[in-house]
Structure formats: C-alpha cells, structure tokens
Amino acid sequence: MDALGTALSENIEDLVRQFSIEEPRFAMQYQNASLEKVPSNFYLDPISNTWKQVEPSAIGEANLILAGSLMYDRLLESYANVGDRFQFRHLFGGLRDVLTRADLSVGSLGVAVADMYPTVSRMTHTLSGRGHYSNARVEYLDGIRFGGFDALALANVHNLDAGARGALATEANVLARGMVPAGLGVHESPLFEVNGISIGLVSFSAAINLQSTLTDDGRTKLVREFAQERARLEIQALRERGAKFIIGYLDTQSNDRRYKLNDRERLAREFAEAGADYIVCTEPRTMSRYSKFRASDGRVVPIASSLGTVLAGIGLPYTRVSALLSVTIRQREDGAIEYEDSYIPIGRQAYDKGGLSPVAVAHQFYAHRKFDSAAGMEVQQKAEKILGSEIGLNGQRRISNVTPVRPQLTPKEISQLLSVQFSPRDLKILGDRLEKAVPVVATPDLLNEDVCAVSMTYKRGESSRNFFKGISHGQVIETSPVMAIATKSLKGVPTLIVEKPWDAYMQLIKAVRDWYNPFTVAVTGTAGKTTTKDMLGMVFPRAGQTMHITGNGNTEIRGAASIMRLSPKDRYYIQEVHGATPGSSKAHSEMVKPDVAIITSIGEGHLEQMGTIENIVQGKLEIADGLTEGGVLVLNNDNEYLKSVDPAVNVIRYGIDDESADYRAINVRTVGESMEFEVVEPGGDRHFVRLNVLGKHNVSNALATFAAARQALIPAHIIIAGLSRYRPSSIRQNVIETGGYKVFLDAFNSNVLSMTLAVETLQSLENPRPGGRRVVVMGDMGEQGDKFVENHQLIGDRIAKCLVDQFFGIGEGVSHTADRLRNSEIPVFHTMDPEELIRALSSELRPGDVILFKASGAVNLTKLVVYPLFGVIA
Question: For residues 290 and 304, what is the distance between their CA atoms, to the nearest angstrom?
Fold first, then answer.
C-alpha cells in the first residue's frame, strides 16, 4: 500500500498537467511529519485488483462499521499540537475498540490532506482565493488509521480546495497511511474481499466546487460528482469484477444550497436504483433518520440519511451525538447474500465528567472505561430518537459473573413465593418498595443497597468444591439492602426468616426460570466443556440475543445468577455445568431446564470428589435429568465411556472416528494454525468448516456445537461463521508467537484427557524457525484423588511415545511423570521451585522452539513461569 502511495506521489505533477487548468497560487511548503505507521489490514492483489485481508478472520461473514463525517478545523489542529509535533491518535482512542473489532471500517473524510500546502490554521478562505479552503495535516490520517479505519470515502464538495494537486496528494496520503481511498483520484472504486465475500465501495458527492479549474479529463477521472448514470456504470463495473454487495457513500454538503432530509433521501433512492445495496449520506452538521427503500428490482436498500460528525473541533454543538452503523454481511452456502445491521451511538463527553477522549462510544459493550454512564445514556437516547424505529441498538453485550442481575421479583412476590411474611416493622421500613422489583443475589460480589440479599453458605456433601463464599449476616447489616432472606432477623433490614436459605433461593430461581422460554443448551464434560460453551457463545448470538457468561460460571450458584439475568428478549441461553461433585449435574440441570444437554468427554478428572470413573460417568449423565420434554442429549461417540452408554432420553451422537455417529467430521486436516474439515449431517449434507484453533479435540467440540445449534434450527452458514470466529481465551489452548518462540499456553486446567490432547496438538504445531524443537513444560494435574501418582505416571508413558524433544516439570505429581520419562530418550528437567524452572528454561530454550505450558489452574503456571519468561503475552 505504501508503494501505491509513493508511486502516485511521484506522478502527481504529470497528472496535474493532465487534469488541471488552474492550481492554487500560494507557495508550496511541505509539512514535516514523521510518525510510526499503523500496519494496514488490507493489501492490493495486483492480479484481481482486489483489496484482500492480510489475515482473514472468519468464513462467509464480514463485520463492517460505517461511520459518518471526519472533519477538520483550527480548533482540532490546535488541540493536537504537542510542542513542535502534532499528535491526533488520542482523539480516536475512544473509537479504537469498536473499529478494530470490525473486518472493515469505513469513514467519510471531509477535508483535503495536501502536505505541500498550508493547513486551515495558516490559510483563510479569503487568502486562498478559492472561496473555501480546507486542508489537514497528514498526521490527521495517522490518527484516523490508529483509530481503526481501513477505508475512507473521499468524495466531497471541497475536493478541489487545494486544486488537482491537493486531490491527488490526498489520495496518495491516504494510501501511504495504510487506508484504501474511494471516490477521489486515479484509482477505480475499490473492491474488497472480506472473509470470502466481495464488497464494493463507491463514493460520490452531490456537488463539487471549482470543477471549472479542471480539464474535461480531470472532471471525469479525478472527482466523482453524483449522477445516477455515472453511479450505475461504476457499480456495474464492480459487479463485473465480482462484487456481491455494494456500499455507497454520498456526501451532500454544498456551498450553494442546503440538502435537506427529503433531498438527501431522494438522491439516495436514485443511488439505490443505480445498484447500491447500502447507502450512507454525509451531512456533517446533521444526524437524521434511517429508513429502507424498496428498489424497482425488489432489493430493500437501507438509507442512513446522515450519521452526523464523528470528529471535528472540540465543543462544536453538532458533534455531540453521532452513530456508527454495524453491518454484518453473510454469504449463504448457495452464494446468496444476507445482511443485518444496527447502530452504535457515539458522542462527546465533557472533560469534567472524566472524559479522556473527544469522542467515545456510548454503548455498554464497547464503551470507553472512563465514559460517564449518565452522559452515555443521554447520547444513546438521542441517537435512538433521531435514527427512528427501523434500526435497533447494537445487541452486543458482555456478561460476566459480576454483571448485575436484573430486578425480577418484588419483595411482596418473594414473600408470597416463599410463604413467609414480613413483620409489621419490616413492612413499614419497606413502604412503597414492597411492590418494586429488586435483584435477588446470593454472593458478595453482587451485593449492594438496592438488592434482596440471600444470606447463607452452602455445602452439599463433603467436598470443599461444593462450598462457596456466601453473604454473611454482618455484610447484610453493613450494606443495608432493600431486604434479606436469612435464618434470623437482621438489624435494620427487612428480613424473611427461613430455615434453609439455599432452598428458598432455589425456589425463587426456579420460579424466575419458568417465566422465560429461551432455547437452552447445557454443556458438561471432563475436558472441552468450557471451549464448547465458548463456541456455542460465538454461534447462538448470531441467530438472536443469547444469555452467555464469559469466563468460568459453571457452578450452581453462578448458574442461578445467570437465570436471574434472563430477559424477555433472550432467545437462547447457554450454561456450562461443572458436574465435579455428586449430584451437581442433576441439580444444575433441573434448575436450568435445557432443551439440549451436551457431554463433551469423560475421563479421570475430579476423581478426588467423585471417587471412581463409574461415578464420574453416572454424574455426567445426570445432566439429562433436567431436559425439557422432547429434549436431546448430545454425546461424543469417540469417547470410550460415552460410546457404550444408553440413556433413556433422545440421544444424538457426534464423532470423528465413528462412522455410525449422527454428526461426523471428515477430511480433517491441519492447515497452518487452523483445523479444516467437513461436517456431515444426519441427512448427508456436508459443510466446510475452518477453526482458528488447533487439535482434533477442538474439531470434536465444534461438532458438538454444530449438533446443538442445528437442534435450535440455526442455519448451517451462521454456525460455520460463528465457529470460524472462535478464538481461545488467554490461558486456554492459546498459541502465541513472540520473539521467535511459539508458545502453546493451556494452563487453565489439566487432567489425563486434556493433557494427552494438548501433547497431541503440540506435535501438529509448526516450528516458527528451522531447527526448532517441541518442548513440554508441565505442572501438576489437579483433583486426581487416589490415582494421583498413577495418572502422572501414565502421562509420562504417553509423552514418551510422542515427538517431544525436551521435558520440563514442576510439582510433586510431575516428579512421577519425570521419573517415567527418564527411561526414554527425552531430556528431562524437574524441580519444585518456580525460580529454578525459569532459570532452566531461560538457559535451554532457543528461538524456533514450540513450547507447551500445561498445568492445573492451582499451579498458577502462567503468572509464575510464562509471564516472567515472555512477558504478559496472553
């Protein structure tokens, strides 16, 4: 891309002679800008003349962000002045998260960037002699690229403020800063290939000043003034090059007239009839409604009549509220294109409210951590009112174990459900709050003054794994919530007194669960359950709003809180079930009431709690006890323990090795850092899938996800797109290249099955450099019970049969692994001291090595060993 910009810059003077009759009369004075460049996400394939992703991120799905006007003025330039330099990056910090998440982010640049001419701070409209003058420093483009923009629609009324030379310089500078230009200059409208979908971008302006300063050739080849026939020809050319979806930007600024809403929509309809599939109008001083237009060929074309100004001088009133459009384009397996869109409100926050950026996202999922919530809500409400009802707020959300639960029950309803009465004194304290819904919480991290607190600790059986830290009586009294449920009256807090608070809490949970009817999937297993849960969490939200907890929320107490977060809008609910203690899968399943229950695998994990492998099998199968009528149990038929079971429920089986399975993976292969395979459905239909994570066990997890999603009637192409988006969390199966090393970090949990699978995956990883080795760094496996020694020895025997060049271990259990490996040809190092392990690894590892770090979470291998060696890489 830099080469394109450089080549264009070198030819500017020749092109000026070809295109221009009159250039600005002021002297050329090149800006001195030296900044570290932000890498581009796209490169131009010279054979197809298509802009292709450097790293495709999915299959058959393109996530786009379309933004409004990026303006420039003296105030903005002054704010970016840092001594003798200009720095604009901090102005875009509040947008970076949302823009960089997209596959392609597009904005509309409303200013020239001609580095040979003075900027607006040094040249007035009058002195320019051109009626209007708008020119930005080249560092402004650096800030725009840093913010996450990949392409810029450049056609606007002021394209010729700095003459043909300035227009060509703008195109060249956009290219040089790692972005793709559209609508200005000598390059044709760009065609992008985004995750296998061809997307065209066209940019026009309703009017362009100073066209009389151009030759006929210049007016045809340099600028893009809107005319329906010209737009039709440009779009037709993109279609002939393979475009499946056309985005049209239309700038409606003018010095001669004001294009009102009806004018903008009229022009947009002409644009739609010319063939554009999605239209964004830009009028910087205005944000106006979103609508849909049915073209004469039957296409329904969204029209954003104006998204307002993304950025301009701080404090200008028309920059207070704007919006980004989030557009997801999918290509079905038959080649047809579908899309869905939503808006993300953005706006300014006053600095006395804690604002650190002139523009920030007013959305819970993307919001800048310092954005004032009240100001954000005001921006969100204004955007909703302006845009109208034909487009909704972006539904992305991040739900964790500490996300507040919803107010589901009033104190009066809680009293009635439990058949327990408040005392007259408590009723007086409650007053009118008796009939106002409150959140019901049972853990200290959710406790506050606005909730109903269930004060208890709970322990089923003898294992400490059943114990959780509940809310103490003292914490209730200190916090003074609306009400409490406890075994005794708590001073100053209206209290419902019950003998067993846990049972009371479960009664409330089950009542709330019965109010909602989301399609529910519960997943358990010795290994793979969290990965499968996260894969489900990538697929189901693409089909509808989904309750899905990020991180580890697989205990009953966390599952109960998830139920308390359900809302009428939730179409799906995904719940991980740990099943590590007797009766836990059964109790959890009966609480969650799944339509589909998945068991990913069974192995010798949790022996400490469950005693025998037979108990583990029985315990995992109890996840079926809460299935709804007609519900389905999904089992991994490649697992030796699951293949032989015959539960008395509807069963669907999946597998890689077993041809009798209902859902099968065939043609499984490792391609670089990905797994590719075909899913064969029960009816014989085949679907190509790519996972951006290694290991056959992850193919198995994807099969489980596919089977569950098909039970929910989710189309195959949506499942495929979601699976291709899955990335492992930082300490689960994460492959990171750093300093010439390839680190395979999988240190969240460890047992015989997951350790075996990790070593198998290690053997498939390519070394980053010739001569590199495969190295295992292992910490103790947890919860092995009476088989602690035996299972660590077993892993040693298995590693000895693998292509491993060196073994490092830490911990008592791994000492037995090391003893077995000393009988092999693999060099072994073992210690009980993390510092000694770090010294040994520092001495022995060399660039080109692939290193597996695997241990149970209690070992804390990531923080004690990985981070000191490689830094915080995950």
Answer: 5
Provide mean pLDDT across the span 15-34. Answer: 78
Per-residue confidence (pLDDT) for residue 134, from 0 to 100: 86
pLDDT mean across residues, the chain: 88
Confidence (pTM):
0.83
Reference 311, options 73, 541, 498, 661; nearest CA is 73
704 vs 653: CA distance, rounded Å = 9
Helix axes 696-711, 752-764, angle to 10 degrees: 110
Looking at residue 277, the DSSP 8-state letter turns out to be S
Q: How many other CB atoms are there within 10 angstroms of residue 85's CB atom?
A: 12
Amino acid at 473: H
**Residues paired with 652 in a beta bridge:** 634
Strand partners, 43: 52
In the CATH hierarchy, which top-level class contains the domain 411-507? alpha beta
Q: What token pair was written down for 170?
A: 């703008």
Q: Collapsing DSSP states into helix, strand and coil, what is residue 822? A: coil
Question: What letter would DSSP give residue 425?
Answer: H
pLDDT by residue (tens digit) across 34-87? 556 678 899 999 999 999 998 899 999 999 999 999 999 888 888 888 888 888
Question: What confidence category does residue 7 fall into, taking pLDDT thresholds of 50, 70 and 90?
Answer: low
Q: Which of 382, 349, 395 is nearest to 368 (CA)?
A: 349
Q: What are the structure tokens assigned to 402, written together?
A: 């500490």
What was the pLDDT predicted at 463? 39
Asked whether 8 and 186 are in contact (CB, 8 A), the reply is yes
User: Looking at per-residue confidence, does 238 or 212 come out higher?
Assistant: 238
Residue spans per domain, the chain? 1-393, 411-507, 517-725, 734-870
| Under 8 Å between Cβ of 250 and 285 | no
pLDDT of residue 731: 46
Residue 732 has pLDDT above 80, yes or no: no
What is the model's pLDDT at position 405? 95
Chain length of the chain: 874
For strands 495-497 and 483-486, give the pairing: parallel
Helices (H), 544-606: 556-563, 584-592
* 540 token code pair: 């189901």
DSSP code at position 399: B
**845 by DSSP, 3-state: which?**
coil
Q: Which two tokens stand for residue 563?
A: 């139920």
CA distance 90 to 82: 12
Tracing tokens 């029950």 back to the chain, one arrives at 409
The domain 734-870 is placed in CATH, from the list 2.60.40.1840, 3.40.50.720, 3.90.190.20, 1.10.357.140, at 3.90.190.20
